[in-house]
Design brief:
Largest sheet: none
Helix content: over 70%
Oligomer: single chain
Structural class: mainly alpha
Shape: globular
Number of domains: 3
CATH class of the largest domain: Mainly Alpha
Number of strands: 0
CATH superfamily of the largest domain: MFS general substrate transporter like domains
Order of helices and strands: HHHHHHHHHHHHHHHHHHH
Length: 566
Amino acid sequence: MTFLGPCRLNSEPQDSAADIERTKSMTTVDGQAGAAAAPAVAPRATWREWLGLAVMCLPTMLTTVDLNVMFLALPHVTADLGPSSTEQLWISDIYGFMIAGFLVTMGTLGDRVGRKKVLLFGGAAFLASSLLAAFATSTIVLIVARALLGVAGATLIPSILALLRTMFKDPKQMGAAMGLWGTSLMAGVVLGPVIGGLMLGAWWWGSVFLLAVPIMGLLLLAGPALIPESKDPNAGRLDLFSVALSLLAILPFVYGLKELARNGWEPVPVVALVAGLVFLVVFLRRQATLAHPLLDLSLFKIRALSTALTMALMIAFVMGGAGLMASLYMQMVEGLSPVRVGTLLLIPSIVMIVVGNLAPAIARKVRPAYVLAAGSLIAAIGMVVLTQVESTAGLTTLLVGLGVVYVGGASVGPMTPFLVMSQTPPEKAGAAGSLSSAVGELGVALGVAILGLIGTATYRGQVDVPGELPADAAATAKESIAGATVVAEQVGGPSAGSLLDSAREAFTSGLNTVALVCVFVFVALAVVAFAGLRHVPSLGDMPMPGMPPKEPKPAADAAGSAQPVH
């Protein structure tokens, strides 16, 4: 398919009759020329596509469950397998590392060999790796299984997003499908701790991995009949050198960010960050010279797509960093267990899911720019509430503020992948799906690292350590609120009480500071949404790449009609 010549990628959209006729004559996905008399209405999905969506939503949910459930299972794994502290970190982190590293590769691979093939292969690999993890008898086997789970998980979301782009050609139906898909993504985040806690209470730690057996089994059994195959018919060969460069760019960079958030400015994470950036530059330079690149940089010239990716990065940045601080506050300041934290967050999370499904419905009548800008400003108000959380009796304020943030941010979650996919040429859907997922992973890592460092710096600047404590204990207490809690348990007496009070106040001040930073980020997000998406029409008026545009409205309505998206 020919999707807008290079000279048009940066130009403002036009709605002249010549443009409409030229668009109608564009080559379609399967290589057949579109006739001028092509129907103006995109074909609507049938029951088969909706059943296929349901089958694909379950693996989507599972990927986020597996991302979070290991934190609950780790104490049980430690008691059984006895991993070292370093091995514990790799057990927790390797899954996310491998997903982030292989997303771009797997998305582009789907464009080349077929998204359905990659999805089903990934589902089978995920099932096998889950069984290996569930019955692991050593730390090394578990780490290898978690790494393989990450590689398999990287095949799922890009393939699913690309397939949704193919299955739901009508913008209204695609918006609804994206809302349901986003619900499954959020459901995994919300239900992960709950499901994990219940299973760990009833069975051994490996049971949490057995969730993959029925879910991936259903995908493998029903997927071949319900999910259509799609790929780029003109794709070239996969450039293995580009694959290697992408891994060398992403893996050290994400590792450096995680270690930076965990241990602060130390030589190893800094070197990893620099190495990742150097390889990223080399990777991008190579992509610019290849006829069939692993990552098509021309996608970033599509204004609405690049804006949506920017928003996805920013919302993940805020939710990752502020979510970490809020979770730590509930555990370290309020003294709640992880399961209790997950339970308390159920209500605002459910509200977020409901609002997230309403956003595409609203966007059928209202331009996405206004929906996303309004949601970002509502979330900013929620962050203002979080700046008022106190170290004593602050739980209610925290939950109210988070609830408002979730309501405002709910529109961004499902709308950004929809905008990315709806503005993407069909033959590049896998690559675009991988970008949508990759910027989310990167945004969370950046948020945890940068906002975590801001919160930690505030804590260290304000905590008051009693002078009678030994030097090593004082240094530990000043490092973090977790360290202060351990020291307080060791020393006891009045010093412990005063240290804990000061540590809780200092950490709460760090939370307030992070929330204030997030206020400005959400305001910037609203500006980005309005400036970058104001030309995008509502879903009801939106044409999609590869589909014939809607017939122009009568001249009397032309002044108020929506512009086609380029």
